[in-house]
Amino acid sequence: MVDPLVETIALPETIDTTVNGWEAAWDIREVTSTSTRAAMEGSLSIRFSRADGVAQMQIYQDIPMYWQLGVETSVALVCQDGLLLRPLRWDTHCITRTAQGEITETLGAHDAYIDDNMLIFDGLSQTAIDLPDAPLTSTWSLLAAFPRIVASGESALSFCVLDELLIARPDQRLIAFGAVEFPTAAGPITLLGYRLLGTGTAPVHYWVTTDGWPMFICGLRRAFVARSITPLLDLER
Asked: What is the value of pTM for the model shown?
């Protein structure tokens, strides 16, 4: 069943994603439903820019209230400007709110950086974790890498993913598996399907435009529905 939000998506003009920056927003929906609590809803926004071989992402995710807890997470992510946007450094800021109005603010608890094949946390205490000798991406940078992946023509990729909690998920595979027609505010469009699966993770399905814009993302628990994608025309070429 197609989420009715899909029919309201405002698609961008074709953007040269290897040069220009962009910003995009998605609504977050809970995949499963229950009669004992309100379904999770929220929003995700990403601002992407690149310069001098480095890509920068400003990520903001807001879950207003879920299981009596609201969470706002801001991440500044620096990546290598390559096919998979290999992450280099994270700076995080998290605010949680209880239904009773109590607020907890955490700055830097999950700050980390990559040094060779080591993931080093330099937040509350410095610890280092060995990473597999494999191409590396992350949950967020993979989402932003789809325009590059589609343009490359690759139908199957293998890599290690760092998830939202910076847990390394090795032996992950991204596989193209077909195309469908989807309704949008501008009329039907073709969406390409990609499936991410691997050791220790539930499959995630990405439906992206033929230019690589992620319109609909569905995992075991959450779905993301695109709301807007806008080029940052003020960036220098």
From this structure: 0.85
d(CA 149, CA 51): 19
- Tell me if 213 sits within 8 A of 202, measured CB to CB: no
Spatial CB neighbours of 115, under 8 Å, sequence gap ≥ 6: none
| Angle (nearest 5°) at CA 12 between 177 and 84 | 50
Alpha helices in the chain (DSSP H): 139-152
Terminal-to-terminal C-alpha distance of the chain = 41
Per-residue pLDDT tens for 124-159? Answer: 667 898 999 999 999 999 999 999 999 999 999 999
Residue 12 pLDDT > 70: no
* Contact of 61 with 43, CB cutoff 8 Å: yes
Q: What is the dihedral of CA 85, 91, 97, 101, to 10 degrees?
A: -150
Coil, strand, or helix at residue 143? helix
Query: Which amino acid is it at 37?
Result: R
Determine contact, residues 83/152, Cβ cutoff 8 Å: yes
